[in-house]
Design a protein that fits this description.
The chain is mainly alpha-helical. It has seven helices and no strands.
Length: 161
């Protein structure tokens, strides 16, 4: 089951695999939910931006074509990331894409003192919030490539090894 570089215990591999599947389902479902909602747009979220890059995120809403592209990248990016993680296919690129996407979310709505958002949050945060934790989950999946053990990546890497 190992490629000679990664010698995980059964419990380590199980937890890493479950983490990958849970993050995969989370992203896939979020993308599908957005795709199936004809009224969904990132515009309200972008307009609610604050922090260092608020102007950039808010300006996207002033350009309908750019907003459409951002919405489509969000929807299809979430679904591709989710499918990749669930299938264990291209897990490293999926993890990198997840880090990039969620970093945009974090930069759009940083949890800093003195910033209040119109959209409700799930708690009271300072610097560390759910999005930052999810970024680090993707980082863990990046450095522990379980797709090479259980997933379609195993077939790809077995042929190239």
């Amino acid at each position: 089951m190992s490629n000679g570089q990664d010698n995980y215990s059964r419990s380590q591999l199980t937890i890493l695999l479950l983490m990958r599947l849970i993050m995969g389902w989370y992203c896939l479902y979020e993308g599908i939910a957005k795709l199936l909602n004809p009224n969904w747009s990132s515009a309200p979220y972008l307009m609610d931006s604050a922090g260092w890059f608020a102007g950039l995120f808010q300006s996207i809403t002033n350009h309908p074509d750019l907003l459409f592209v951002v919405d489509q990248l969000n929807i299809w990016g979430l679904m591709a990331i989710g499918a990749g993680l669930i299938l264990g296919f291209m897990t490293r690129p999926a993890a990198i894409a997840g880090i990039v996407l969620l970093s945009f979310y974090y930069l759009s709505h940083p949890p800093l003192v003195g910033i209040n958002y119109a959209m409700p949050t799930e708690g009271n945060y300072l610097i560390v919030n759910k999005t930052l934790i999810e970024i680090f989950v993707f980082a863990i999946l990046l450095v522990f490539p379980t797709g090479r053990h259980i997933g379609l990546d195993r077939l790809v890497w077995k042929k190239s090894a």
